[in-house]
Description:
The complex is a heterodimer.
Chain A: H1 7-34, H2 45-100, H3 106-127, E1 130-131, E2 134-135, E3 146-148, E4 156-158, E5 166-170, E6 173-176, H4 181-185, H5 192-204, H6 208-261, H7 265-291
Antiparallel strand pairs in A: 1-2, 3-4, 5-6
Helix pairs in contact in A: 1-7, 2-3, 2-5, 2-6, 3-5, 5-6
Chain B: H1 3-29, E1 39-45, E2 59-66, H2 70-99, H3 108-124, H4 129-190, H5 196-210, E3 216-219, E4 225-228, E5 234-237, E6 240-241, E7 244-248, E8 254-258, E9 261-262, H6 270-306, E10 320-321, H7 328-331, E11 333-334, H8 354-360, H9 373-413, H10 417-449
Antiparallel strand pairs in B: 1-2, 3-4, 4-5, 5-6, 7-8, 8-9, 10-11
Helix pairs in contact in B: 1-10, 2-4, 2-5, 2-6, 2-9, 3-4, 3-8, 3-9, 4-5, 4-6, 6-8, 6-9
Amino acid sequence: MYSRITTELVNRNLLDSLNQTQQSQTTAMTQVETQRRVNVPSDDPVAAALSSGNQSQAAQITQFLQNINSLNGQLQVGDSALSSATTLMNRALTLGTQGATGTLSATDRADLGQEVGQVLDEMVNVANTTFNGTYVFAGTAAGPAYTANNAQPDGVLYNGNNGTNQVQIAPGAAVTINQPGSQIFQNGAGSIFQSLNDLKNALNSNDPAGAQTAVGELSGAIKQLSQQRVFYGSTLNRLSSTQTFLSNEQQNLTQQETTLVGSDLASALTQLSAAQTARTAILTAGGHLSQLSLLNYLQ
Amino acid sequence: MGLFGILSIADQSLAAQQTALTVTSNNIANVNTPGYSRRVAQLAEQAPFSTQAGGGGGVQVANVTAVRDAVLEIRVQQETQTQSKLTSLQQQLGPVEALFSEQGGAGLGTAIDNFFSALQQLSTDPSSGAQRQAAITAAQTMTQTFQQVSRGISQQISGADQEVVQQVGQVNNLTTQIAQLNGQIADLQNAQQDTASLVDQRTNLMGQLSGLMDFNVSSASNGQLTLTTSQGQALVVGTDAHTLTLAPNGAGTHDIYDDGTDITATISGGALAGMITARDQNLPGMNTQLDQLAASLSNSVNTQNAAGFDASGNPGGNLFTVPGATGAAATMSLSTTDPNAIAASGTGSPGDNTNLLTMLGLQNQPIAGGLKPDDAYAAMISHIGSLLQGANTQQQASQTVLSQLQNQRASYSGVSMDEESVHLTQFQQAYQAAARVVGVVNTLTDLAINLGKD
């Protein structure tokens, strides 16, 4: 308490009280407007730093999800190319089985041989499948994976390499995203191009026994191909489950962020209305106070 | 005592009440004058004319005193120094804090994240020209954001320096005026004159000086004050003002000298102290952290890029140019805008991404002073946030104390209109009564003169 109440004291108190309520009003107002408790780092330095960490974690997760989207496209293109390859191989198998039958004429075999030649050409096209301009079966090399080349024992020249790439799809987790063409189409355990070329040559040279041998090679190559396709299927599955995991993680982060820096809207609104009430009360009291003066009563 | 004795008493009373009314009127007139201390007319009884019973000498105004509490004034000045220091610190750090705010800030954290995201995206298709371009653009944006934040801090530093220069000018202006008042007060005091209004003026000037810097006060018997810095360097001695001078220093800012001694670091109160703390410590500290992040990130990326092969299969070069560790953030730039310069490949095959994967690992490695890039950025947020939070809290506490002290001063030395209204009535009535006494004496004198007539 003050022993003397002076004009300056009354004015000071009035101004101080008004300033204080205005300050809490502004604070509450900002919280309501931005829906955030922490608007500048000094509001809560620890929460602000944690929030920044959350944000960069969220940015990484968003990017991982984008990686997965891109990879999905790339792997699906690879998978469907191998599906076409399987169809082609089955077609070749049918042709080969026909050609191995002893009753066919040389002309008929030559026709079949020509057809197998087309299958072979088609297979080269399949092996040169691109995604966004990149040859998906060329390993890590640029340019078409295969060119037809009769000088080669299997009729094709591999221009790619044996490189594979890995891409991160989650914190600390990476997947291999490609199989080199050499492994798929020219695998030692059953080469697609070798078997097709052998069949073509056997049919063209009217050699049923050779065709029979080639049919055996074809079956081996088909088996090998289906094993290679497993890679694409399982990687796509892994991408899909990682995607679910990351989406959950993203939600958790958003929730954490709200707890960390979000404002409690109900309490902010209560504070706002309390500050407004206080301000009105002070203004009313101040107005009355300044009207009170002894001078009004002295004649 | 005769009738004329009574008349003399009435005369003195009229004069005394009039003086008291003048004092009251002056108080009312100065109700809103900053730093004014109310005056009180001290009425005292005059020595009696005679020793007879009922003999009295009447009234006189013994003196007019200013109601002032010297200790309270000093406390107000001290708290003003603390308050001004914290307020100026807030003002200097606020804009820099805004650079680090999530909303409306420069977004350095996001720019760093985006750079690594673009590299991630490139890793899914390392030979894609579009994604290489996106990565180079993200690197460019990150570089520009580093520059922007660094420029923001540097501008604040030079702004604070300009304010220091201006405020030193104001300090000199105030000390010169205080020295002049010292002289006038001593002269008046020698001549036994009223010094109250000059002392009020001087106190007011010292209040303003407290807003700028801290100082010690000692008073002499002739009413003069000696002001010294906290380290004892003279600011005002008698009628001499020791003006402060400025000299440029190595950091591109100004040091403050008093009589040839560098007092920059010893100023611990007032707006100058806040400016100097922000200018010489806090803001350069932020710049150092920023430079460290910029330099270590650029160098790590460069080293990794040099370990790989660019899109044409040639060994990778630098992506960023950083002239030196100091000022790294301000001066860093892209070494090339050629998207093919990103050495994604670790084998030389254009479609290989192994080197890029290793480069991506930098995002989660303690490359910046033992911290991951993101954590180094978060540390800056928490640093500037804590500095300002501390300043805010202390400023609020100091504001409460200062208000309390100023209220006490207002209560003690301030003018109360009600009180002065009462005084007005009181002295007016006394004046009227004294005048009435003159009338009564007049009648009595008439009676006495006409006594025995007719």
